[in-house]
Amino acid sequence: MNRSTYSSLPERFFARIHPTPVAKPQLLRFNHALKLEIGLELQDTSDDALAEAFCGNVILPGSDPIAMAYAGHQFGHFVPQLGDGRAILLGEAVDSSEVHRDIQLKGSGRTPYSRGGDGRAALGPVLREYLISEAMHALGIPTTRALAAVLTGENVFREGVLPGAILTRVAASFVRVGTFQYFAARDDVDAVRLLADYVIDRHYPHVKFEPQRYLSLLGAVIGAQASLIANWMHVGFIHGVMNTDNMSVSGETIDFGPCAFVDSYDPAAVFSSIDRQGRYAFGNQPHAAVWNLARFAETLLPLIDENPQRAVELATAALAAFSTRFAELSLAGLNRKLGLGVREDGDTALSNDLLDAMHKNGADFTLTFRRLCDAAERDLRATDVRELFANPEEFDVWALRWRARLGREPLDPRVRAAAMRRVNPAVIPRNHRIEQVIAAAVNDRNFEPFVALSAVLSRPYESVEGFESYANPPQSGERVLQTFCGT
Ligand code: AMP
Ligand code: MG
Questions:
Q1: At CA 21, angle to CA 16 and CA 25, rounded to 5?
Q2: 275 in catalytic set
Q3: For a designed S-S bond to 85, which of 60, 94, 114, 190 qualifies (C-beta 3.0 to 4.6 A apart)?
Q4: Ramachandran sector of residue 339 (left: φ over 0; alpha: ψ -120 to 50; beta: rest)
């Protein structure tokens, strides 16, 4: 492991701290494929050695562990100091293309940023983040990854007594919008500049030699987030806690807390128990993102122009690009989901009308699009899309328009259906499946459902024989109504 480049920044950016040892580490899962992909070299890859290294009991050669400082707006309220309260950055791996990735333990003990917390993580949320982050990756969406999950052999105390665990995650970097806010709130413009330069070198090297590099950085982060949120919405993902400390400037999905996937399509869907106002509801995510990006822009103002008025004008113009970009990406994605390659004027209305009909009729988001793939190559009546709608005739009316529209597309129906199957997943990490995995692990130390679900989610665009039930929405008794951070 390499020492993290972040630890070369000035001391006020982080705290040097070692993980707190745990009693009896036991390896639950190690992602060997990811280890190879990121170029991580390990001397000893026995289960015991991996457990010792990825619970923090053994510090790997080259590692120089730190906890990063950050701040953030949580549900709209600014908290000037948050930071890695239970995470420790061990170091970096560098792959064969010289891409650096940060390797971080989550649940590794108290740090100077822990505030009242115990610095630990419970098994349930660790398995949740492992499954969902890897599923996001398999879906083709930028995300932090999961390298390891280790049981600590210690209990943590939440609403009750729970088994403790540690997740090792891998990210392009762990710099958040809230990291910029930490320094901006202290009027530490030098630190904001150092951080911006660090982020440019690491994530957006193409802006380095532009005349307005910090404005270009803002534009690049806005573009990355517009793309990320559009991607989320195309698979029905709700992050659940889009606070500025949970928004990565690299454009990866980060901090999987009470996240969820919609079953029946509903733009107002909220699962997180702490999101009482629906601030981060499914359909609000683009608005939440642009709000966060405005907070990011504020931190960069002194770097954008020395004339404050001019800086605000430039940043405002950059932020305005979000909605145009998002609308474009959203339409492009929906068109791909519907098998449309050529752009026509009525396309936005066509996809919006399908979404409206799905909402009104309680149709399952994932299944509707997946079954449309079959419908694209077969007679509609022979498929089972319409039965997903409470009133199937509302689907029929829409489907006539879609059929007519497909008639103006050049592709062979089979080729089109195959392309649609590459963007409309058969399986997503359904909330009830995740809960079943956690219940078996926590109550019975049975990790078989975890392993089985991991395998299914690694190939989300394939209809795998024998795994049909994983594609199904919850039965009424299985429905998950709320999700919890479990912190
Ligand atoms: P999160 O809700 O996970 O995004 O965390 C928000 C803030 O609370 C971050 O600064 C975390 O490091 C901190 N935090 C969450 N859980 C704990 C915990 N168990 N111990 C210490 N800090 C925590
Ligand atoms: Mg967080």
A1: 135
A2: no
A3: 114
A4: left
Atom 22, ligand 1: which residue's CA is nearest? Answer: 85
Question: Is the full-model pTM beyond 0.90?
Answer: yes
Q: Which atom of ligand 1 is nearest to the CA of 111?
A: 21
Q: pLDDT tens digits, residue range 221-276?
A: 999 999 999 999 999 999 999 999 999 999 999 999 999 999 999 999 999 999 99
Query: Rounded to the nearest whole angstrom, what is the distance from the C-alpha of residue 154 to the centroid of ligand 1?
Result: 19
268-140-180 Cα angle (round to 5) = 70
| Substitution candidate for ligand 1 out of 86, 182, 244 with most atoms within 8 A of CB | 86
Give me ligand 2 centre to Cα 479, in Å: 26
Q: Do 240 and 127 belong together in one domain?
A: no
pLDDT in tens, 333-356: 999 999 999 999 999 999 999 999
> What mean pLDDT is predicted for residues 378-391?
84
For residue 114, what are the CA distances in angstroms to 77, 133, 212, 321, 484?
A: 19, 24, 37, 37, 20
Cα–ligand 1 centroid distance for 487 (angstroms):
6
Choose among 223, 192, 176: nearest CA to 82: 176
* 134 belongs to a structural domain: yes
Rounded to the nearest 5°, which phi and psi values hold at 177?
Answer: -55, -40
pLDDT of residue 487: 61
In which domain, by residue range, is 451 found? 432-465
Which ligand lies nearest to the CA atom of residue 120 in the structure? 1
Question: How far does Cα 436 stand from its chain's mean position?
Answer: 21
pLDDT tens track for 66-89: 999 999 999 999 999 999 999 999
**Ligand 1 centroid – CA 6 distance (Å):** 20
Closest C-alpha to 1, from 104, 137, 120: 104
Closest residue by Cα to atom 11, ligand 1, is 85
Query: Are 198 and 332 in the same domain?
Result: yes
> Element (H or E) spanning 164, and its range?
strand 161-171
In a domain, 362, yes or no: no
**471 CA to centre of ligand 2 in angstroms:** 30
Ligand 1 contact, 255 CB (< 6 A):
yes
Are 245 and 82 in contact by the 8 Å Cβ rule? The answer is yes
The reply to whether ligand 1 has any atom less than 6 angstroms from the CB of 224 is: no
Same domain for 41 and 135? yes
**Is 73 found in the same domain as 11?**
yes
Query: Residues within 5 Å of ion ligand 2 by Cβ?
Result: 246, 255
Q: Is the pLDDT at 189 greater than 80, yes or no?
A: yes
Task: Give the chain's domain count.
Answer: 3
Q: Whose CA is nearest to atom 16 of ligand 1?
A: 487
